[in-house]
Every structure is written in C-alpha cells, then in structure tokens.
Amino acid sequence: MTPDTPPEPIETFIARWEAAEASERSNASLFLTELCDLLGLPHPDPAGDDNAYIFERDVTFRKHDGSTAP
Fold this sequence. Notes:
By secondary structure, this protein is mostly helical. Helix content is about 35%, strand content about 5%. The protein has a two-stranded antiparallel sheet with strand order 1-2. Helix 1 (about 10-20) runs antiparallel to helix 2 (about 25-40).
C-alpha cells in the first residue's frame, strides 16, 4: 500500500477495533454489526419469538427432573 492508496476495509476494521477497550457489553453489538458489513452479511434481526438471527437469545435450561431455569 502506498501513501496515496486508501486502507483496505479489513485493515481499517482491525485498526478501529484493536484500539477498543475491553468492554464486551458496550462494544459487542457494534462490533458484530460492523463485522457483518465487512463480510457483506445482513445485520441480525430485532429480537422476537420467531427470529432465528438475533444478537442474543434467551436460553432455557431443562433439568433432569423436568423443571426449567433461565
């Protein structure tokens, strides 16, 4: 890359995120959205009962006795 050549999208992404502070909760959604953009993938859908492609999904654990826990 020469000084007149703009940085590649991957290099720009890496430079932006390697400077980020370790704050997973505040950075996770933005990081994943920008990663989707970089890879040319659609953004996850808003959370809902029928949506399979979302950022976070509730998990219900089923115990051996048949009861459940969040």
